[in-house]
Amino acid sequence: MAELGVPPIVLGHIANHRTTTKAGITLGVYVQHAYEKEKREALELWADRLRGIVAGAKVVPLRA
User: Fold this and answer.
1) Residue 19 phi/psi, 5° resolution?
2) Which of 6, 14, 61, 62 could anchor a disulfide with 1, C-beta 3.0 to 4.6 Å?
3) Would you say 8 and 20 are in contact if contact means Cβ atoms under 8 Å apart?
4) What is the pTM of this model?
C-alpha cells in the first residue's frame, strides 16, 4: 500500500500497530483522530490493486 501512496501513519492504523499509532505522548494523548476516512481510501486502493492482479491472472484448472 505504501507503493500506492498510502502514508505510514495510515498503514499503522490499518495494521493496528501500537508503535505507529500510539507511540509517545503526542500521538497517544493529543492525537485522537481515528483515520477512518484515510483507512477506507487506502483499503479501496488496495482492493482496486488486487482486482487488477486477479483480473489479469490466468487460472489453471487442477486435476482431481
Assistant:
1) -65, -25
2) 6
3) yes
4) 0.69
pLDDT band at 22 (very low <50, low <70, confident <90, very high): low
Query: Which DSSP string corresponds to 3-52?
Result: GGT--HHHHHHHHT-HHHHS-HHIIIII-----HHHHHHHHHHHHHHHHH
Q: Cell numbers 483499503 label which residue?
A: 43
Closest CA to 1 of 57, 51, 50, 37: 50
Kindly report the number of other CB atoms within 10 A of residue 43's CB atom: 14
Question: Is 39 in contact with 14 (CB distance < 8 Å)?
Answer: yes
